[in-house]
Write a structure and sequence with these properties.
Strand order of the largest sheet: 3-4-5-6-2-1-7
Strand content: 15-25%
Radius of gyration: 30 Å
CATH superfamily of the largest domain: P-loop containing nucleotide triphosphate hydrolases
Distance between the termini: 23 Å
CATH architecture of the largest domain: 3-Layer(aba) Sandwich
Structural class: alpha/beta
Number of helices: 15
Order of helices and strands: EEHEEEEHEHHHHHHEHEEHEHEEHHHH
Helix content: 40-55%
Number of domains: 3
């Protein structure tokens, strides 16, 4: 008997409804043990029809709920599936799961429904990763990227490349089978032209993925400066909330403060740091050390200067610290008389009066997103896929540098490339990669 799995597919907790999902050849038989409806005859059950009835635990207790049957192969997993829509609640939904398990269902592992769907050809590996991305998306841009990936466009393009490679391998095999025929040179010319075309395609995919890090994880922006230049006021202005403590006392911020906001669907992760100066205060010194580390790990550094006074030694030290990082020089307090000398490529603001804050946000955005993102094109939606494409391009370079090698070696390299690309679609022999991806799903998915 095939394994039939069950799990709660909605978030645990109180709510209007919870969904209990069951998949496997025994789903219908197990459901019949508990569910009844006036309109339902299990012998002639109508697939995809929502039946209102009762889930009976025993003669004294039952739950009024809905049940729907998805007949194989026209279901998410490709197997027979049953879903119960019941009133939301921890105890009730768990009780239903326990009842189904008592009749032979097994508790599903994380992502097991989706892994069965993959094994049955209902979704590809890139589509499975897109589902994870849709669930975890924190911004509109991240959601768009994953919705586009869920259409299977990446898989279609990668399979075209794999089919091309298969043709090249077939040509090589023909050459090896008929060594007396003098057409090795023409075959090599054909192969290397195709591999060059594949390199161009991979480069296109990689170029589209350059903004991947910022789409998925946001932009880390460190706000640094000497004490009392308005770093905390700037953080509050950027996020639109009074989160950081603002006083006239130098050294108020002694630890790193993390806050975020969204701009044009991109997440900005702001880091308000302790003012950098010489200090004998033990706690403040630790904060200053953390500030210097924040500069190192930030994607962009906002170097804040107080425009109402001349630059001091600490300002100059900070400007020197950030010179080799992506940075924006921000001159604060334009609501006061300007005293500080003009600096190259500066942006002037008033953190207190929130003047030019949107100009600053636009500058941050343009500094990391150097090209317009076209979501109608294929988007590589996660780091794993990006790294595979980088690996594939490296193999392509090796192939193009092997023109003087034997056809056996060229064939081996092309097979390596085929398998590398298969790590994206699942068209490869590496089960550990597949297991790793589906382990990231939640229970019931």
């Amino acid at each position: 008997m095939d394994k039939t799995i069950v799990a709660i597919s909605t978030p645990l907790g109180k709510g209007a409804i919870s969904i209990v999902r069951m998949s496997g050849s025994q789903s219908l038989n197990i459901a019949q043990s508990f569910f009844s409806s006036k309109k339902l005859n299990f012998t002639n059950i109508v697939p995809n029809y929502l039946y209102l009835g009762h889930f009976t635990f025993d003669k004294n207790s039952h739950e009024k709920c809905f049940m729907v049957y998805f007949k194989a192969p026209y279901s998410y997993t490709g197997e027979d599936m049953i879903e119960f829509q019941v009133h939301g609640g921890l105890i009730l939904t768990q009780k239903i799961v326990d009842a189904l398990i008592s009749k032979g269902a097994k508790m599903a592992g994380p992502g097991e429904f989706s892994q069965i769907a993959f094994e049955n050809g209902k979704i590809s590996l890139d589509e499975a990763e897109a589902i994870i991305g849709e669930i975890n998306a924190e911004s509109e841009s991240e959601l768009k990227a994953n919705l586009n990936l869920a259409d299977g466009k990446l898989k279609q393009n990668i399979i075209k490349l794999q089919n091309n490679l298969t043709s090249q391998i077939a040509q090589i095999e023909a050459t090896l089978d008929y060594p007396e025929e003098d057409f090795e040179k023409s075959v090599k010319d054909s192969i290397f032209k195709s591999i060059t075309d594949i390199k161009l395609k991979l480069t296109e995919f990689i170029d589209q993925a350059e903004n991947l890090k910022f789409i998925n994880h946001g932009v880390n922006v460190a706000i640094v400066g000497s004490p009392n230049v308005g770093k905390s006021s700037l953080l509050n202005a950027l996020i639109g909330e009074e989160k950081a403590i603002v006083t006239d006392i130098a050294g108020t911020t002694r630890d790193i403060v993390h806050e975020y906001t969204f701009y044009k669907d991109l997440k900005f992760n702001f880091i308000d740091t302790a003012g950098i100066r010489d200090s004998e205060d033990k706690v403040e010194k630790i904060g200053i050390e953390k500030s210097q580390k924040s500069i190192e790990f930030a994607d962009i550094v906002l170097c804040l200067i107080d425009g109402s006074r001349l630059l001091n030694d600490y300002d100059k030290k900070i400007l020197n610290l950030v010179k080799n990082k992506k940075h924006i020089i921000v001159v604060n307090k334009i609501d006061c008389n300007r005293v500080a000398q003009k600096l190259e490529n500066e942006i002037t603001i008033s953190a207190k009066d929130e003047i030019n804050i949107d100009v600053l946000k636009e500058s941050i955005y343009n500094m990391v997103i150097e090209k317009n993102i076209d979501f109608n094109k294929i988007m590589i939606a996660n780091q794993r896929q990006y790294e595979i494409l980088i690996e594939a391009k490296s193999i392509v370079e090796n192939i193009l540098n092997s023109k003087d090698e034997s056809m056996d070696i060229i064939s081996m390299l092309i097979k390596n490339l085929w398998n590398c690309l298969g790590k994206i679609t699942g068209e490869c022999e590496n089960e550990s990669i597949i297991d790793l991806i589906f382990s990231k799903f939640c229970l019931g998915k």
